[in-house]
Design a protein that fits this description.
The protein has 49 residues and is an all-alpha fold. The protein has one domain. The chain is built from one helix and no strands. It is rod-shaped, with a radius of gyration of 18 Å. The model has no long low-confidence stretch (mean pLDDT 89).
Length: 49
């Protein structure tokens, strides 16, 4: 997918760790933005307000 097959063992492991870390950061920021935008609305719906 990213052409990581050509890397050596240690470099490949470091690349995968970097990719997972970037993915985690993107998800953290994305979910934070969604919570900021819709959090109060959803809590209001759940409380029946």
């Amino acid at each position: 997918m990213f052409g990581l097959d050509s890397l050596s063992g240690n470099a490949q492991a470091a690349a995968f760790i970097g990719i997972v870390l970037i993915e985690a950061i993107v998800l953290y920021v994305g979910y934070g933005a969604l919570e900021q935008a819709f959090g109060e609305y959803v809590v209001g719906l759940l409380r029946g307000e």
